[in-house]
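REVIEWER CHECKLIST
Item 1: Sequence provided? yes
Item 2: Single chain? yes
Item 3: Sequence as submitted:
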Amino acid sequence: MKPVTDARWSHRGHRVVQHVVLVGSLVLLAACAEDPVVPDRGALSGFEVRLVAPVEPGSPAFPLPFTTMPLEVELDIIARDRRGERMRGFDGEVRLTSVPGRIAEAERTVRLVEGRGSARVGLQYTYGDTRIWVQEQAPEGEMSSFGLGISPPLFFAEPRVRNVRFNPDNPAGLSPLFGREARIGEGILMVTNVVANGFYATDVGDALPDWSTGREPRGVGQEPWTSLFVFTFNFPDGITIGDRLCSLAGGVAEFQGQTQLTFPNYIIQGVGRVGEVPDEAFLDPADPGAPGACAYRTEVDGSLVQVLPHVLDEATLGDNTLVRAWDSALVRIEGGVLSTRFDDCDFDGSGQIEGADERACRSRCQRDLTCTEMSSLRQFDQFSASVGGIAFEVADATRAAGYDPLAGCAPHAGVEGDPDDPPGYRCGDAGRQLRSVTGSLRLVDLGGVVLRVVIPRFETDLVFAP
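Item 4: Structure as written out by the authors:
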């Protein structure tokens, strides 16, 4: 068999020298009484794949942009026999695959005539060192000779958070990188919250203004689709709100409608950490009680940076599609009221909501904007709130903010086993009106019912109306 040639792009100044790849065929021999007949189709060895366009394929130092929209790539594909010569007797189809990346289904099959053909395909969601694989597609009923070919490399920039989160083909759909490994090597990634099984990070690179040098505190807003939850399974020791991530990589997954990075690897640049007590220098002199205004900071080009929460208006909060852009972001909801009724629907004390009466009790409570079912509070430190008729949940408030939602509430005996009047707690309206709540937004899709959960960080994240 002819030796396999390598594929390299040699860079000498601005001159690019192309080499091609020829991958030898693989022959599969089945261990059975009668081996299947493998058509030699002229002793196909493999395919030479030449890159016609783009003329500049990028390089590790100067990569092409991450391909949110398809980038047209033109290939010249030549079937080669075992002597390395063009195999003019080959008339058949080949299948194209991008690794990594995606090629539209309609463009994945190309027909070669007299051993040669051209292909124009659109590469999308590609990053890093990318190759296009070419494989023989045998006619129906025939076994493939497994002839292969690989294109020279194209080099693309690594994705940013928005490329992982936003799907331009379907904004309400899965991440375009779902099921793949991704390294986020661009942007300015800051840790915005740390919870029991991971942390939240936001890329503020797009929101940074053109600052002059100096060390004045600077407020940085957030752009949609630029926040991500990093799932670490256990509490992520060694990482703190305000840390800057120099790099972040992991597997892109979806859990209950939330895009997550799993099995992560990350490098922390711990600059300018701020503790749980806000620094007075970061408070707005015109409004010293403003929540979340000084929760954390880092340094970029010598200037102190503070990430500001995005204020969610009721129209966005109430729309299942619009609110997805702010999933995992640091947000603030202004106004609202906390639960004034806590129902214990676990009548038998089993720790589970089971049986018709218990389920009816929970369903009735879930329909009531002022009600929290006690199992949510016990298991998840989570209770209900609402603003403008839109329900949302507040989670981890006891751990993070030191808030007791049952403070000021009185036990209610109720009627054991009665779904309409179960035991629990009843609270008056006093002290239940919110001025604002700040925290990381998590959307939980339970089969079409989307819960909005806000996870505070500090005591100052819950601000009550006077």
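Item 5: Key structural point noted by reviewer: The first strand starts at residue 9 and ends at 12.
Item 6: Recommendation: ____
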